[in-house]
Design brief:
- Helix content is 38%, strand content 19%.
- It is an alpha+beta fold.
- It has a single domain, classed as Glutaredoxin (3-Layer(aba) Sandwich).
- The chain has a 4-stranded mixed sheet with strand order 2-1-3-4, with helices on one face.
- α1 links the parallel β1 and β2.
- α1 runs parallel beside α3.
Length: 91
């Protein structure tokens, strides 16, 4: 019987900044699902933030969430992906 709880085989990366409520929500959500993730703070790295933005259709806000090499989007995108049942496909 398949589990409703996702299990990740791909690395999840969450790019954040300080004092970002959506970043906090994304990290809490992933933790509540039992999914390990790496957090990369962009506060002191504007070059990386600009690079990620240009590589992902000009996305400028944080968090920037990746599952493997797939850009998910932000917290609301991650939550919608999970709620639709499609998150397991990426993991």
């Amino acid at each position: 019987m398949p589990s409703d709880k996702p299990s990740n085989k791909k690395e999840i990366r969450v790019y954040t900044t300080n004092y970002c409520p959506y970043c906090v929500n994304a990290k809490k959500f992933l933790t509540s699902l039992g999914l390990p993730f790496s957090e990369i703070n962009l506060e002191e790295n504007p070059e990386l933030r600009a690079k990620l933005s240009s590589e992902n259709n000009g996305w400028r806000t944080v968090p920037m969430i990746f599952i493997g090499d797939h850009f998910v989007g932000g917290f609301t995108d991650l939550k919608a992906l999970h709620d639709s049942g499609k998150m397991n496909e990426l993991l």
